[in-house]
């Protein structure tokens, strides 16, 4: 094995990180976790409820995760316990993957105009503020070279029908990411966002007419297809590894190039 192959096989050797947001084996967070594990990372996983614990625990076992802990981003005591457990087990963190978002699915249809106050605030707290809160909590455990990564979507900057308040939350999340990148950059900690195209995940299933979104993106992207979960997982690996050491404050698209299009492909006009 050559030096290049040895480096590629162990990009995350000796690195420890927290993965939040695995819902099942079709989750983007799980695709990332598999790529990270294949390159030597040691990971802790979180789950929100007993229902998700039954899904996450078997997956965590497959990658020999030493910590599988409850975490509710709307409960400060829950997050206190999470980071205390991580500090006690490892003493430090090298990376954090934030794949957490939520909105009332009944409001992910129709007009954004009809968003309720309660769901707006709830969506913003879970989908946006949680990343800032987690970054603040992770910071004391992170050393220079550490990396934080969150997940966003094109609906943050362009109107995607029925994405509604999630688009607004993702726009705020991307702005938060940039401010965090500035705040933590002087400490050698990087903060970025990954923007996958349409994915067949549990979270996406709550969006009305999501199949049409998949079809439209695939037929008009420069690659004429949507990205795969494995491709998104590999991009997350890159962003959390030292290969991206000079990148911070960026939104990295993994969508077959769909985000660059100003109109439909000629054959679809």
CATH topology: Rossmann fold
Question: What would you report as the Rg, rounded to the nearest angstrom?
Answer: 18 Å
Succession of helices and strands = HEHEHEHEHEHEHHE
Would you tell me the structural class of the helices and strands? alpha/beta
Strand order of the largest sheet: 3-2-1-4-5-6-7
Q: Write down the domain tally.
A: 1
Largest sheet: 7 strands, parallel
Give the helix level as a range of percent.
Answer: 40-55%
What is the straight-line distance between the termini?
A: 50 Å
Q: What would you say the CATH architecture is? A: 3-Layer(aba) Sandwich
Q: Which CATH class?
A: Alpha Beta
Share of β-strand residues: 15-25%
Number of strands: 7
Envelope shape: globular
| CATH level 4 superfamily | NAD(P)-binding Rossmann-like Domain
Assembly state here? Answer: single chain
pLDDT < 50 runs, ≥5 residues: 1-7
Report mean pLDDT, rounded to a whole number: 92
So how many helices?
A: 8
